[in-house]
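Quick bug: Winged helix-turn-helix domain-containing protein output formatted oddly.
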Amino acid sequence: MSESEPRAGREARTDSEESQTDKLNWDAVGVVASSRYRGLALVALNDSPATPSDIAETADEDIAHVSRAIQELKEHGLVELLVDEDRQKGRYYGVTADGAAVAARSTPPTRMRGWSR
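Here's what came back:
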C-alpha cells in the first residue's frame, strides 16, 4: 500500500489531522472520559472561565463533585486557576492549551443542562 492510499478500515487523514492527533495527550483524554464530572467541568470551562459554584449551579450538580473534578483537571494540567492561589472566594478557572485540545475531542456529558454544543 502506498503512502497516499487509505489505511484498511480507516479513512485517509490529512497530514494536518495526523499531526493534531499525534500531539493530543491521550492520557488526558482518558482522564476526562472516565468521569462525567471532569467532562462537565472541562467543557464548561472551555466555553468560558468560571468558578466551581457557577458550573455546579448551571449543571445542577453538587459543588463537591465539581470542585473535586476541577482539582483533578488542574493536577493533569488541563485547567488553571486564573486568580491568586490565596483567594478563597471567586476562584475562577480556565482551560490550558492542552485542556482546550482535549475539550475539542470530548463530548459533553448527557446530563449537562446548562450547555449545549
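Actually, after a second look the formatting is fine. The first strand starts at residue 79 and ends at 81. Closing.
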